[in-house]
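Lecture notes, unit on protein representations.

Consider one protein chain, 313 amino acids long.
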Amino acid sequence: MMKRLASYVLLGALLGAAPLHAAPKQKPFHFSVIGHTFPAEQGDADLKRAIAKANESRPAFVLASGIKSAAEPCSDKLYTQRRNVLNTSDRPLVLLLAGSDWTGCRNSAGRSNAIERLNRIREIYFEGPDSLGERKLELSRQSNIAKFRSYAENAHWEQGGVLFATVNLPSNNNHFLAEAGRNSEYEDRFVANRSWLQRLFALAKRRKLDGIVLFSDGDVGAHREQGFSLLPSFSSKQDGFSDTRRILRTLAEKYPGKVLLIDTSKERPADDVKPGTLTWRGNLGHVSLTSEWSEIEVEPGSKHLFSLHGPEK
C-alpha cells in the first residue's frame, strides 16, 4: 500500500513539472507577395512568371496584389482569364484587390462603373471560403457577418501564431471622391473596414497571437509621424486614409504583439522611404512591395518577428 502511494506521489510530481498541455513552439516559415505589376500588353505573361518565382521556395502561401492594370479592360472575360492564371499557383494563393481592378472602370457612356465592377469581381473571385491556387487555404471572410455580406474580399487566416488579413483600401486615395453629396461607396466601405479591423485585433488579443499582418493596396501611412499627410496638396484634397490611419494607430497601441502593414502602392510621398524597406515605429512595422515578388520570413520569438527577403531586400 505504501509503495503504491509513493508511486502516485512521484507520478503527480512529474506531471506537475511537465504540463501535459504545454503550447508547442512555433516554427519559422515564410510567405510570398506578388507586387502589382501588370503592363497592358503582357499582363498574363508577367503574372505567370511572378507566380512561378513566388512558388519556387514553397512558401506557406502566396499573396497576389491586383487582377489587372488600369489600362486593361474591366471585362468579365479578363477577370475570368486572370482567375484561371492565379489558380495555376501550386501554393495557396490569396487575392488582394487593387484600385486598378475596379475604381477607374467606366461604362459605355463614360460614367463610373466602379461599384458594379467591384460587385462582379466579388462574384467571380470570392464566392466560397477557400483561397485560389491548386492547394487551398480556408479563409474567414467578412461576408460571413450578415451586416457586411457584400465585403467578401476582406478575409483573414492564421499561420504559425500570426493573424493575416486583407483589407480593401485602394491606392488612389482610398477611392475618396471629391463630389457633392454623399460619397456612398467610400463611406460604406469605411464602416465595414473599421468593424473588420476592430474584429481582427480583438481576435488576435483573445488568441494571444504574436503578430498581425495586414495587406492593402494603398499605403495607409499609419507608420509615419503624426500630422504627416499622404497628399502633397493636403489643403486642397481630403486624405482618404486619415480615418483608417487613426483607427489603426489606436488599435496597434493597445495590442501587445507586432503589427506589420504591407501595401503594394506605387504612390509615394516625396520624403517617404523607398519601396522594399521594412521600417518600424514601436510595434508598428511597414513595407511597400512593388516588385514582381518578394518574401517575408516569420521567425517566432525574434525581436521584430518579421524580416524581408527576395528581390526587394
